[in-house]
């Protein structure tokens, strides 16, 4: 931005209050310049502002803070545009004027920031001679000293501005032979002194444990930030000050304050990063690394050693970028130095050391050493490998887990150079892994996996053979390596699989065959599993193999083909392997730029092309095999085969591709007459029979669709003829559905898009003629095909839009959700196409006459076309048209005229009065979109007629009309306010508005109370709709705003409350298990034991009835009684009734809160099947039904839990059959309450007691149903 633009911004729009004074000062200066007839140049502005500054700021103080701030602000804007010689000559004068502002104790942040800006502009233009002046004089050095003091100011903005100014000054040194800025040494020295003083002060406070011990930590962080600024700006820290800085930083980094440690490390990072970017400053690196190495702490210092190791790691990483060869030569020495720390007893030190070694491996070894190592490089790697092998000695046993992490990284870095230098490591780790008592098997597996990936499976298996199927004497089998091979093998020799794995697989499979059809033993099952594991390794061998041309020959291809035919279990692995062969080589060919053999794993682009050409020779035969296998495979398992077919189709030569396509097409034509009609009902029956194959024509059509993407342009005529034939087959919906998929499939390729564009007219006719034969299952794919035609529709063929429109509109009412969504998207796409312009020749539309006029395409015209459906004769079509208008209005309401919108709104008012519910339901959706999306100026004047028509349906309970109307009114209240909506509502319906207002107020009050009580307000659920349109039409106020209180919301909240009451389960799934035997999830009957509601505990039959106990008072023998039936118990029913027995006292708390939920009906059904009264299997498997009543279920029940202990032989009063007597006298009996569904009831007494309870004679006080509670305890027998 130029100076004039900045000034005009202040002049024209002083929005901020702080800018108003600046505008006044600017106007005064401009008026003065005009009076003096001076040009408004930067120099003139500068001179005027400087003279004004002297009058505002002096050594005695600041005359007017606001004016002074405005003057210095303008000076800050002007100074960068003033000629440099003038600024140099006026430097002492300007500095003397600014100094009071910078040093004044009452100077505010805006004044300081502008002053710093002026100072920055002055210092940047000073020459070398000016910088030579001492700090004692009025010189640039003195100004920098002031900036350094301000750079640790407690105010963040001031501090940041000063640091930015310092940074800019140091980054712009005057021309001189020196590497550093003349002031860099002074800045570094001053910053170091400040850091040292602040660090000492902080240490003293910490030592004396003062209460404000952390007071100097902010100052320390500010000073570290200043150090970072100086280090960043001056091209790295000055060489002479590096050792002092490193010592200070390492001492600070041992602090327990993580911010200080991070700040210290950031400074090291900045210094190192500056050296990478600047070749000149990189000369300081050797000295820096030497200083850091000399500062090595004690080997047992667990607080200082980890940060020191981290700095060393980063330092040599930078060194490797600047001097890769020299740094690599130091690797053995560095490795030895850091590896000694792995002996430490401190876990932190060991981890830091291993991470440092991993960093060395990743960063210090150059790519050239891996690709083309010299003799010297090989010797260096051998030294490192020998040192790494020593880490597996007993001396480092405590650090083996860290060592394993490093070894895994070492294999990953060295890649194929790991062989042979790391062979001893593989052998040692393999032997440790084979030891059953070894604890680090997971870490050892990681090392062996990396070794397999780096060296190749042939080398690793040579060192650690699998020893299968029978290990040699004295050796153990290593079947545990098969999963490691599966996950790690890649970019290796495919021939190794043929020579090692295939014979092993054949030997094991022969044992399975030799076993015959007898019952499989465990050994045979193991052999089968191992065979599958062996073949699961093949995809890894086929991932960019090094010897594809040699290893993948005719015999290997035939073997894979036989496996595809004969071994269904291995098809997935074989298909993945074949797919990997092609995809991995294609990925190399498609890479941009020059060959990077390290990235491309030693396979050049030329080699990859040769590999693909070699595979193309097998493509025709392999496709024939895959097609046959595909046709024999059930639909659920075809995905992998189809992906492999796609891979081979992408490399097959064009001639063979055409031959393959013609074979498939011929077979398809032959299979069509054999298929016969297949209705949707038959298709559903077939889906239920999972093992039934689909008709051959369906399979072949799938293959045609797959192949179509790769076909040349000249084969498209036959392809379109085939599609036309299928589309007309209305007796086979599935085949028709597949035919429609062809058009979107072709649109995926450039050739296909060109063909669709050129044949657009033919396809339009095809789709129009087949409209009557389109079946419901094919609707979605037909709409997708129409959408592709619309995309390529030329402006002259827009008559296709009205011709197909009625079908798209009626599809908006489809039962299938995806079909509806496709119809909505197509309606929008057609609108966009009409908005692009063109001509609609209406005489070409089949339903219109030949004399129909031609009209210009526009959105207005499109709305007219869709609105024509409102004149339909059937309510279903009218409803669909309203839904379609709703969708396109939501999309295009900002792009059509207000007149069109008003006409639509008036039209919908008429339809809102229609008695047909289907029509009104669509209109309610329109009204909701109207209220939400249209501007307030359009809707507010229509509130009164709209609400009067709307309220008629607020009394209609069917189809959720009442709730829908309430949602719309809630939206209105939110948009227009309660008062406006209430005035427009008919008086007899204003109760609804009152209800909404009260609910809103209650919610606000609750929210306010929740905030006052620091309670967490429950978050509203996120949007569950796929599009904004769905949210507008189907979403409710209750769901996405705090004003909602609908019936639906009430139901949902009741369900949520009850869900929380039951333990917070929301839609949980429960497994019902037998106590003796866990559920077998592989069983066919497993689904019968899985419930979406919490299962009820079934009553238990006593395991033994041999125990007996004689009642002392009655003399009766009670069978099945336990010894602890005197124990006090508590049982709580679902409805809240609690019965406590403790020394005969009775407490009953009855809660009448109704917690009935919408799930009650479902629970009742589940209760009937699995509840207490469900049928039980008795002796000889006979079904037994219990018609006994339990306590609390009926007042005539004699078998309740409490009565079993409450009966007395001499009971004289009771209720009905078998009452019981209260200890304090009075009428016995108890008030019954039916337990809630799902309540768990205990049998045989709460304490486990059991036995039969005898009936007692009807007592004097009984007979009345539901007698009163006796005051006192129930006295049980």
TrEMBL record:
Please report which protein family the annotation says this sequence is part of: Belongs to the RRP12 family.
Lineage runs: Eukaryota, Fungi, Dikarya, Ascomycota, Pezizomycotina
PANTHER family on file: ARM REPEAT SUPERFAMILY PROTEIN (PTHR48287:SF1)
Record's InterPro entries? ARM-like (IPR011989), ARM-type_fold (IPR016024), HEAT_RRP12 (IPR012978), HEAT_RRP12_N (IPR057860), RRP12 (IPR052087)
Please report the stretch or stretches of sequence annotated as the RRP12 HEAT domain: 343-633
State the compartments where it is located.
Nucleus
* UniProt-annotated stretches for the region Disordered: 670-695, 1003-1158, 1171-1277
- Regions of biased composition (Acidic residues) lie at 1037-1048, 1142-1154
Q: Which UniProt keywords apply?
A: Nucleus
Q: What is this protein called?
A: NUC173 domain-containing protein
Could you name the Gene Ontology cellular component terms for this entry? Answer: nucleus
Q: For the RRP12 N-terminal HEAT domain, which residue ranges apply? A: 11-232
Task: Give the source species.
Answer: Lophiotrema nucula
Per UniProt, the ranges with Gly residues bias are: 1213-1230, 1264-1277
- Which portions of the chain have biased composition (kind: Basic residues)? 1179-1189
């Amino acid at each position: 931005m130029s100076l004039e633009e900045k000034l005009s911004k202040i002049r024209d729009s002083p929005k901020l209050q702080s800018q108003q004074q600046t505008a006044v000062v600017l106007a005064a200066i401009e008026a003065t310049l005009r009076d003096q007839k001076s040009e408004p140049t930067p120099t003139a502005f500068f001179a005027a502002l400087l003279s004004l500054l002297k009058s505002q700021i002096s050594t005695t103080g600041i005359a007017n803070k606001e004016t002074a701030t405005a003057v210095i602000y303008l000076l800050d804007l002007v100074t960068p545009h003033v000629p440099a010689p003038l600024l140099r000559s006026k430097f002492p004068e300007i500095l003397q004027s600014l100094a009071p502002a910078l040093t004044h104790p009452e100077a505010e942040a805006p004044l300081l920031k502008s002053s710093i800006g002026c100072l920055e502009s002055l210092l940047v233009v000073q020459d070398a001679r000016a910088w030579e002046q001492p700090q004692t004089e009025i010189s640039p050095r003195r100004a920098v000293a002031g900036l350094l003091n301000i750079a640790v100011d407690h105010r963040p903005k001031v501090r940041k501005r000063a640091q930015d100014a310092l940074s800019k000054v140091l980054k712009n040194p005057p021309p001189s032979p020196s590497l550093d800025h003349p002031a860099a040494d002074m800045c570094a020295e001053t910053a170091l002194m400040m850091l040292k003083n602040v660090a000492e002060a902080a240490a003293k406070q910490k030592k004396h444990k003062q209460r404000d011990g952390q007071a100097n930590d902010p100052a320390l962080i500010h000073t570290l930030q200043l150090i970072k600024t100086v280090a960043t700006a001056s091209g790295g820290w000055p060489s002479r000050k590096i050792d002092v800085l490193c010592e200070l930083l390492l001492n600070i980094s041992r602090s327990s304050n993580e911010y200080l440690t991070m700040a210290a490390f950031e400074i090291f990072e900045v210094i190192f990063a500056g050296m990478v970017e600047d070749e000149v400053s990189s000369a300081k690196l050797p000295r820096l690394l030497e200083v850091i190495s000399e500062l090595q702490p004690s080997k047992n210092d667990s607080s200082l050693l980890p940060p020191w190791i981290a700095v060393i790691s980063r330092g040599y990483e930078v060194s490797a970028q600047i001097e890769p060869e020299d740094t690599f030569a130091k690797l053995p020495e560095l490795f030895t130095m850091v590896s000694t720390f792995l002996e430490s007893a401190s876990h932190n030190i060991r981890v830091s050391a291993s991470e440092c070694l991993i960093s060395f491996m990743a960063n210090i070894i150059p790519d050239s050493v891996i690709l083309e190592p010299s003799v010297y490089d090989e010797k260096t790697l051998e030294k490192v490998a020998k040192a790494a092998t020593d880490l597996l000695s007993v001396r480092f046993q405590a650090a083996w887990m860290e060592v394993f992490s490093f070894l895994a990284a070492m294999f990953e870095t060295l890649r194929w150079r790991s062989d042979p230098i790391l062979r001893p490591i593989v052998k040692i780790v393999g032997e440790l892994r084979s030891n059953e008592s070894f604890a680090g098997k997971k870490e050892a597996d990681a090392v062996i996996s990396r070794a397999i990936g780096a060296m190749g499976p042939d080398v690793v298996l040579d060192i650690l053979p699998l020893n299968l199927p029978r290990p040699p004497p004295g050796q153990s089998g290593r079947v545990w390596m098969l999963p490691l091979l599966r996950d790690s093998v890649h970019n290796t020799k495919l021939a190794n699989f043929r020579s090692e794995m295939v014979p092993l697989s054949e030997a094991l499979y022969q044992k399975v065959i030799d076993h015959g059809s007898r019952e499989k033993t465990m050994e045979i099952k193991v052999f089968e599993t191992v065979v599958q594991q062996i073949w699961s390794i093949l995809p890894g061998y086929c991932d960019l193999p090094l010897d594809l041309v040699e290893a993948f020959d005719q015999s290997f291809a035939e073997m894979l083909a036989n496996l595809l035919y004969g071994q269904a279990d291995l098809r997935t692995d074989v298909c993945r392997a074949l797919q990997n062969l092609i995809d991995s080589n294609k990925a190399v060919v498609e890479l941009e730029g020059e060959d990077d053999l390290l990235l491309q794993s030693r396979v050049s682009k030329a080699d990859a092309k040769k590999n693909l050409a070699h595979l193309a020779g097998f493509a025709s035969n392999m496709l024939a095999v895959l097609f046959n296998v595909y046709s024999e495979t059930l639909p659920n398992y075809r995905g992998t085969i189809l992906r492999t077919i796609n891979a081979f189709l992408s490399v097959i030569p064009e001639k063979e591709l055409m031959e393959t396509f013609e074979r498939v097409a011929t077979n398809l034509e032959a299979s069509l007459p054999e298929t016969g009609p297949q209705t949707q009902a038959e298709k559903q029956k077939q889906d239920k029979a999972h093992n039934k194959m689909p008709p051959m024509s369906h399979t072949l059509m799938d293959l045609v669709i797959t192949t179509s993407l790769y076909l040349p342009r000249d084969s498209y005529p036959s392809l379109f003829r085939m599609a036309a034939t299928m589309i007309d087959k209305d007796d086979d919906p599935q085949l028709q559905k597949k035919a429609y998929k062809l058009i979107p499939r072709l649109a995926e390729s450039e050739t296909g898009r060109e063909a669709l564009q050129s044949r657009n007219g033919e396809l339009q006719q095809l789709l129009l003629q087949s409209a009557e034969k389109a079946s419901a299952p094919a609707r979605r794919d037909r709409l997708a095909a129409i959408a592709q035609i619309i995309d390529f529709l030329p402006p002259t063929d827009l008559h296709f839009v009205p011709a197909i429109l009625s079908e798209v509109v009626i599809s908006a009412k489809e039962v299938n959700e995806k079909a509806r969504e496709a119809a909505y998207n197509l309606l929008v796409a057609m609108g966009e196409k009409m908005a692009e312009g063109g001509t609609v020749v209406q005489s070409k539309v089949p339903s219109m006459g030949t004399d129909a006029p031609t009209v210009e395409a526009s959105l207005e015209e499109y709305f007219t076309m869709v609105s024509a459906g409102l004149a339909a004769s059937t309510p279903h079509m009218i409803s669909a048209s309203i839904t379609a208008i709703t969708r396109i209005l939501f999309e295009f309401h900002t792009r059509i005229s207000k007149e069109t919108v008003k006409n639509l709104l008036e039209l919908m008012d008429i339809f809102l009065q229609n008695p047909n519910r289907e029509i009104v339901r669509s209109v309610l959706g329109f009204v909701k979109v109207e209220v939400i999306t249209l501007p307030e100026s359009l809707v507010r004047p229509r509130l009164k007629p709209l609400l009067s028509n709307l309220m008629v349906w607020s009394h209609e309970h069917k189809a959720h009309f009442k709730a829908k109307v309430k949602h719309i009114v809630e939206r209105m209240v939110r948009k227009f306010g309660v008062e406006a909506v209430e005035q427009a509502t008919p008086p007899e319906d204003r109760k609804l508005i009152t209800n909404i207002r009260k609910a809103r107020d209650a919610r606000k009050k609750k929210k306010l109370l929740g905030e006052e009580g620091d309670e967490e307000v429950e978050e509203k659920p996120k949007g569950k709709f796929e599009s904004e349109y769905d949210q507008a039409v189907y979403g409710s106020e209750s769901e996405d705003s705090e004003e909602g209180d609908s019936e639906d919301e009430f139901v949902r909240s009741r369900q949520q409350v009850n869900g929380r009451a039951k333990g917070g389960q929301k839609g949980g799934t429960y497994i019902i298990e037998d106590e003796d035997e866990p559920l077998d999830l592989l069983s066919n009957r497993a689904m019968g034991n899985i419930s979406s509601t919490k299962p009820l505990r079934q009553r238990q039959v006593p395991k033994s009835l041999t125990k007996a106990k004689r009642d002392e008072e009655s003399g009766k023998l009670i069978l099945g009684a336990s010894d602890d039936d005197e124990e006090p118990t508590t049982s709580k029913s679902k409805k809240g009734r609690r019965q406590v027995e403790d020394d005969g006292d009775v407490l009953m708390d009855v809660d009448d809160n109704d917690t009935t939920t919408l799930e009650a009906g479902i629970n009742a059904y589940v209760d009937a099947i699995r509840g207490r009264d469900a049928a039980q299997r008795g002796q000889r498997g006979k079904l037994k039904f219990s018609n006994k009543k339990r306590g609390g279920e009926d007042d005539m029940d004699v078998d309740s839990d409490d009565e079993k202990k409450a009966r007395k032989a001499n009971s004289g009063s009771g209720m009905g059959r078998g009452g019981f007597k209260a200890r304090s006298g009075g009428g016995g009996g108890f008030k019954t309450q039916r337990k809630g569904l799902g309540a768990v009831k205990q049998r045989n007494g709460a304490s486990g007691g059991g036995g039969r309870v005898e009936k007692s004679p009807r007592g004097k006080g009984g007979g009345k149903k539901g007698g009163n509670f006796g005051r006192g305890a129930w006295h049980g027998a």
